[in-house]
From TrEMBL:
Residue stretches spanning the membrane: 29-47, 59-82, 94-113, 133-154, 166-185
Annotated keywords: Membrane, TPR repeat, Transmembrane, Transmembrane helix
Cell inner membrane recorded as keyword: no
Name of the protein in question: Tetratricopeptide repeat protein
Amino acid sequence: MNARQSKSQNLNENSTSDLIKYNSVPDRTVPIVAGLFIACLSGWWAQSIRNSGGLSLPYARADITIVNFLCVLPLAIVVTEWMQGVLKYHSPGLFKIVNLIALTGTAGILVFLFSSSHASVALSEYDAWESFILRPVIAFWLILSLILLTGRFFRTEIPQGSVRAGKLVWSTVCLTALLVPVFYIQSRVDEMAQQVDEYLGSGRLGDARQVVREVCILSPWGKIGGQPADDVARDLDHDCFGVERSLAYMNQQTSHNEESTYHRARLLAILGEDQSAIDLLLPWYDKSTVSPLTSQLLGNLYQQQQHWAESQQAYRRALQAWEKLPASEQQQAGVVASWKGIAFAERKRGNYEAAETAYLSALSLAPTADQHFLLAQYYEDTQQTAKAREYAHQAMALDATRYGQSGQKLITSLQQQHFGCLQVWRNGEF
């Protein structure tokens, strides 16, 4: 009787042990930390290449890199758990081969990243589609390899018979890895297309070319202004080549006075080489007889670099120089541009009263639709709803073709931000 009880007790203990072993949930702390680490590291790497003038293929931007790596992380964790909990015990030889392939492929990817030169030309549609495929593949491969490596280092092996992912889990992680980055990238491409329009409107061809190249990588089917992105990229390459040729010719001249220096700096600004342009202008800016054009261009360059205090000082100096000149069309345009630059810099610095004064000064000199809409945007930013609505309507009335849609969009935004504010909904005039 005692033998039977002992045997039954041993069977129950073994069954309980097997049940606990089968239902044990693996600790995912190490793979999650490893995935976050490689995602942040890859994002930093992509951004460093972008800052150096490359395209950080195939991701183009740091945020896109991080999104791709994070979305692939759940899939990599599930695959790793399956490999360690199933494949390792049923086919240990195949498990070792897969580990070796993963680590060898990762080593090859790293060697390629550190040894290849940064791409700086627009890609063809075929290359862009290749980049589209490589994004999830590279992210999955690197994270999977790092999880396998850290699993061995920290000895977080998955026991045989651990919880196995069902079909719902597999389908969810696969869809997350593939679809979420696609939707995110498309939203970023739409923003980048608007950014290209802004750069082209301000004559910054170099910056526009950089963004269009990124669009060519991220969206092979993308369009900018109704034209295929690769066509826009080729046009910008041609235009920038003409600017670069003019700049090279000017650099060959032996005498460089302030006027020639200004024109060279302006060409550098068009190409997006802001710091080089600033370095050219600073020696002339330090002189008391500096031209208002030089100060104004320097203010714009500081603005592009988000150096708001320096931008405001340069625009102030340009304003003082313009006001000393005889009245003319160019002089008035220079004064208005200086006030607008001052207003924008003060707004970014948080000096809202000074910014409002500058905007109103520009409006008093040039009561155009542009000035009215700038004030509308300023009042929207500072939560002055009634004034924002008033100036938006005036801009729409002065130039319905240009500001009809954007003015309506601004007013709609005011409605959404200040729902229930009777001043916005008053009269129903939208």
